[in-house]
Amino acid sequence: MSDVVKKTKAWLLDVIIGLNLCPFAKKEFVNDTIRYSVCEHKKLKNALVQLAFELKHLDEHNECETTLLIFDTGFKSFEQYLDLVDLANGFIEQEGYSGVYQIASFHPDYLFEGEESSDTSHYTNRSPYPMLHLIREESMERVLKSYKSPEQIPIDNIANARRKGAAFFEAYLK
């Protein structure tokens, strides 16, 4: 297992699952149904080729619930990463995957639009590496039906992040 995957798994376990930022992640982590795909491409076109490969892999492997497409060397600039996210979402729509898969985005410098750059809420989407989380929509819908107040999840996450404070996240992500 590469150091990139080890660091990503540790972040998932300690931050995402440990702080319950995603109440659905623990089951998939424990069941080992998360695919970790490290992409070394730095160019948008090549990253989209890798995205297409990962979507096809999900199509062909129902035992794999979700994929983290991790960019260990590329897309370090948040602006460049946002271009990737836009193109990836466009690719999903163009290739007929709308309603089948969705993308959640994570980046070491993630910033929510309209929030002060110092706001700790950004840490709910900050990760050790830029990554695209490919999620099966059908699975997400099923899980959300069994969750009391899914709309409360991001609100709780922001409150949780603010309680923990920036120093906690910064120390972990360094």
From TrEMBL:
InterPro entries documented for this protein: DUF1415
A Pfam cross-reference name: DUF1415
Protein known as: DUF1415 domain-containing protein
